[in-house]
Amino acid sequence: MKKKYQNGFFLFGLVVLVIMVTQLDFAEVWRGLTHAGYWFFAVVALWAVLYLFNTASWWMIIKSQEVKEVKGSYVASRRKLKDDSSVNSQLSTRQGIKGVSAFFWLYKITISAFALNYATPGGLMGGEPYRIMSLSPKIGAERASSSVILFVMTHIFSHFWFWLLSCILFVVLKPVDALLGMLFAAAFAFCVLGIWFFMAGYRKGLAVRAMGVLRHIPYIKRWAIPFIDSHREQLDTIDRQIASLHRQNRKAFVSVVLTELACRVCSALEIYFVLRVLMPSVNYLDCILILAFTSLFANLLFFMPLQLGGREGGFLMSVTRLGMTVSEGVFVALIVRLRELVWTGVGLLLIKFDGKTRQ
User: Fold this and answer.
1) Please, which residues have CB within 8 angstroms of residue 107's CB and are 6 or more apart in sequence?
2) Cα-based angle 21, 263, 312 (whole degrees, multiple of 5)
3) How far apart are CA 359 and CA 347, in angstroms?
4) pTM metric for this prediction
5) pLDDT tens-digit profile of 125-159?
6) Any residues with CB less than 8 A from the CB of 249 and at least 6 apart, and which?
7) Tell me: the pLDDT tens digits for 212-222?
């Protein structure tokens, strides 16, 4: 990525981060940190592991595309693939990413991309372009774009499964009155609709369909229509690459989805660590439910940087419904907010101090 683009991403994220930090009540932050003690560091360290899950998902998507490209070249030349080793030998001669160092470079990009998404109103508007621009010099713009779109699709797809399974878990474990029953029925239907939408996107691709929506948005359509017309072939190629993961490599598709879903379940450890400070007998299943309904509420307010206010409101509703006090909900929300700010800062520093950035 060129230096000017790198600096642009860094400065944008830095300005938003400074604005968010100035909104904090520092006395309350200090009280929260002293109360949390070493558990706060456990929460921060946990996300170093969770980002490995996200990186592994993206890595599997990229590598599945490389194998498909090699197979396609063999078919085009009417040469028969004999075994997986022949595929690997071909991959070694092609441009791409490989090796442990490449995986951890992708890990760095993943952390920075999530940092930009945390800081960007609307989400996905900063981190995903950064991913594409960073990866394009290595594997080409079309494959980089399709891999990022696939990762985002799978990341969101796993959220819908997580919310759906959490609805079932709540109904099994907790008493449900008529009002809650209607709310959970609506949430269940919403999740099923979301899963159906993404399954359709996996089968047919999503790039052309998404750009088609932009054709009808005022102001944006003036840019979108010429862009779509001039890049139709590239968008069709991206959609074919998206569809191929689900259609031709089901094992990789299922592995990516399960990895992202496991990341959602493991991220409930964050809430578990924080609540351990307040109630040593905390139930991990309750932490999963808190995370599920908090993330669902926060994502409904996706247009706010770091889901300011939405995340806290979600925590308050979740913990009080599960029999915890409002003060406990505020404490959990504060520690999670501080963790996000820490990792946002780390991600921005990784953007700035990328020694391989081209001038």
Assistant:
1) 51, 52, 55
2) 35
3) 21
4) 0.79
5) 568 888 988 898 888 888 888 889 889 889 989 99
6) 64, 67, 68
7) 666 776 766 67
Report yes or no: 96 and 69 within 8 Å, Cβ to Cβ: no
Nearest residue to 315 via CA among 346, 339, 291, 351: 291
CB-CB contact of 333 with 298 (8 Å): no
Q: What is the pLDDT of residue 300?
A: 65
Beta carbons of 314 and 296 less than 8 angstroms apart: yes
In 10 A of CB 279, how many CB atoms?
A: 12
Tokens 């991990």 correspond to: 284
Separation between Cα atoms, residue 127 and residue 110, nearest integer Å: 8
- Rounded to the nearest integer, the mean pLDDT of the chain is 77
Supply 34's token pair.
Answer: 């002293």
Would you say residue 316 has pLDDT above 80?
Answer: no
Quote the CA–CA distance of 244 and 353 in Å, as a whole number.
36
| DSSP collapsed to 3 states, the chain | CEHHHHHHHHHHHHHHHHHHHHCCCHHHHHHHHHHHCHHHHHHHHHHHHHHHHHHHHHHHHHHHHHHHHHHHHHHHCCCCCCCHHHHHHHHCCCCCCCCHHHHHHHHHHHHHHHHHHHHCCCCCCCHHHHHHHHHHHHHCHHHHHHHHHHHHHHHHHHHHHHHHHHHHHHHHHCCCCHHHHHHHHHHHHHHHHHHHHHHHHHHHCCHHHHHHHHCCCCCHHHHHHHHHHHCHHHHHHHHHHHHHHHHHCHHHHHHHHHHHHHHHHHCHHHHHHHHHHHCCCCCHHHHHHHHHHHHHHHHHCCCCHHHCCHHHHHHHHHHHHCCCCHHHHHHHHHHHHHHHHHHHHHHHHHHHCCCCCEC
